[in-house]
Amino acid sequence: MKKFIVEVLLELKLVFTGKSIDVLLPPLLFLILYNNFSLLVALIGSLLLSIVFFTVRIIKKENLFYSIGGLIGVIIAIILAYISNNASNFFLPDIIGTSFLVLVTFISLLIKKPLAIWVSHITRGWDLQWFYRKDVFPAYFEVTIFWQIFFISRLVLEVYLYVNSTVEELVIVNIVLGFPLLIAVLTISYVYGITRLRRLKGPGIDEFMNQATPPYRGQTRGF
Predict the structure, then answer these.
(1) Which end of the chain is more exposed for a tag (fewer CB within 10 A), N or C?
(2) How far apart are CA 23 and CA 71, in angstroms?
(3) Full-model pTM
(4) Rounded CA gap, 105 and 97, in Å?
(5) Tally of CB atoms within 10 A around 166
């Protein structure tokens, strides 16, 4: 059991590598500045923080995925909030982003090219042909269905809170729905996915690449 927990933690580290703070801190700084100063100060402060994160990642030659995402999201949010003079619009990009994920996930299921396959392929570089084997594909398809349920639930909650909540409540929910809940979703996805692969009794990715013959050992780590 301990070995499996360590395995899950290593998989989460592979996904996040400590950079998701680039997305989480700007909204929190926005709330602090908004409550103590003004909307304009809050917008400028959150933008400067995102630029700092982006600059640091460039200097350190680190992965820019989260810092770019955070910077683009903050810029869009600032434009919307400043034009409407409504602080709540700072969180509108989250709703737009979740809506996009709902659409992309639905299409990926509809055309039978599950989003989970592409995420794993891009993250790990595994051969796409392996994912589409009959004794592998169901695991990724089912995990993508789970993601779709999560994205839809998140979108409904975000829209409801956007219409009915204060800025403070939006910040809190935005943080909870971000990193902490994403960890839970990815952990459940990994545990279910790797268990499902083993029950499907297909080859592990290494066995597939080496053209091994049945009976297979199966996928022992990674999803």
Answers:
(1) N
(2) 8
(3) 0.70
(4) 12
(5) 11
Q: Is there a contact between 129 and 164 (Cβ–Cβ < 8 Å)?
A: no
> Nearest-5° angle of CA 107, CA 149, CA 198?
90
How many other C-beta atoms lie within 10 A of the C-beta of residue 35? 12
Question: DSSP state, 214?
Answer: S
Helix axes 39-59, 21-36, angle to 10 degrees: 150
- The alpha carbon of residue 195 and the mean position of all alpha carbons in its chain are separated, in whole angstroms, by 21
Residues 6+ apart with CB under 8 A from 16: none
> What would the pLDDT profile of 95-145 be if each residue is shown by its tens digit?
877 888 899 999 999 999 999 999 888 778 889 999 999 999 999 999 999
pLDDT per position as a tens digit, 73-90: 677 667 766 666 666 677
Which residues have a Cβ under 8 Å from the Cβ of 178 and sit 6 or more positions away? 20, 23, 24
Q: What share of the chain is helix, strand, coil (3-state, %, to 5)?
A: 80, 0, 20
CA distances from 138 to 36, 87, 133, 146, 162 (A): 51, 43, 9, 12, 36
From 174, 218, 214, select the one nearest 194 (Cα to Cα).
218
